[in-house]
Write a structure and sequence with these properties.
Layout (H helix, E strand, L loop, with lengths): L1 H4 L11 H24 L2 H19 L5 H25 L1 H4 L17 H22 L2 H25 L3 H21 L4 H24 L1 H7 L4 H4 L2 H21 L7 H26 L6 H24 L1
Length: 317
């Protein structure tokens, strides 16, 4: 305490040293608060959603849409995804504090109050939908609102806590940006849009089940019936393989819907690698070896990124 209140000999004016550090301390506090609010939006999820939105827009346009439209959809989509994540954190604040993976999030860590998080999430949701309605079209805006509502009210509040099929039924939320981006460009939805939607929808099971395997004890402690918590290893392996194959086959089924070899060849190659990784994981689990689930988790992200980059390149060339 004396270090704060004692006047240094070199300070003849007698100014309290506390004033000298108020600025840096205040700046640090402001940065911490802003960082906490950003963390609530789960930026990595936002990035992944945008990876699927822009290529879908480009394919819908047959080239490069107007930069203004792309900016609106990217901003609106980011705000919508952020809103859904913030509201998810608000609803899940009781279980997040029980899980090692989530206990340091802003709400369980008491960096942001529940009321502030709720207001923040609702404001982001309102702004995102209003932005889409004002500058794109009502279909895109309606899909944006539906995706937020479904993710938070249906998936987070109900399905996640009540059924081991929660990942499957929640998959529509993660795939919605494809439809939103397509609708923003054309005002309608074509077979290719639904095909890309299906790719992302099926992909979420072989993507998320490995993560749930790694944090199986966390989910069990919180009472969340994720499939790896309540089902046998054989059942989990079967679903990983079924949905990995459905993901790859669906991505190839999109090929004839206005796409060329620029899309098809890399999709075929990375699809084969994706399937090999899925089979390797299931083989290790069957033999009782170390499963290394995060290997498939990370590769699945690479797979989806390459597939949608191929969509974008195909639309441009």
């Amino acid at each position: 305490m004396s270090m704060i209140t004692e006047r240094p000999a070199s300070n003849p004016a007698g100014r309290p040293p506390a004033r000298a550090v108020e600025g840096p301390v205040a700046r640090r506090d402001l940065r911490a608060v802003l960082s906490a609010y950003v963390a609530l939006t789960k930026p990595r999820i936002v990035e992944l959603l945008l990876v699927t939105t822009v290529p879908a827009m480009m394919l819908a346009d047959g080239g490069l849409p107007s930069l203004w439209l792309m900016a609106v959809v990217l901003v609106g989509g980011s705000l919508a995804a952020g809103a859904a994540s913030v509201l998810n954190c608000y609803i899940d604040r009781d279980i997040d504090q029980l899980m090692r993976r989530t206990k340091r999030r802003p709400l369980p860590a008491h960096t942001v109050s529940p009321r502030s998080a709720l207001v923040f999430g609702l404001v982001l949701a309102a702004v995102s939908v209003a932005l889409m309605a004002a500058f794109t079209n009502l279909l895109a805006a309606g899909l944006t609102l539906a995706a937020i509502a479904y993710y938070d009210l249906v998936y987070t509040l109900w399905l996640k806590r009540s059924t081991p099929t929660n990942t499957f039924w929640g998959g529509a939320c993660g795939a919605a940006p494809v439809l939103i981006g397509w609708a923003a460009v054309t005002g309608s939805l074509a077979p290719a849009a639904w095909g890309l939607f299906a790719v992302v929808f099926f992909w979420q099971m072989p993507h998320f089940y490995p993560l749930a395997m790694k944090y199986k004890d966390d989910y069990a402690r919180a009472g969340i019936p994720m499939l790896p918590v309540v089902a046998s290893t054989r059942r989990v392996n079967a679903e990983i393989l079924i949905f990995a194959w459905l993901t790859v086959l669906t991505s190839l089924a999109v090929w004839p819907l206005g796409l060329s070899a620029i899309y098809g060849v890399p999709t075929l190659v990375v699809g084969a690698i994706f399937l090999v990784e899925a089979h390797l994981l299931c083989g290790r689990a069957k033999r009782g070896e170390a499963v290394k689930p995060m290997r498939l988790f990370h590769w699945s992200t690479t797979y989806l990124t390459i597939v949608f980059v191929a969509v974008a390149l195909d639309a441009l060339i």
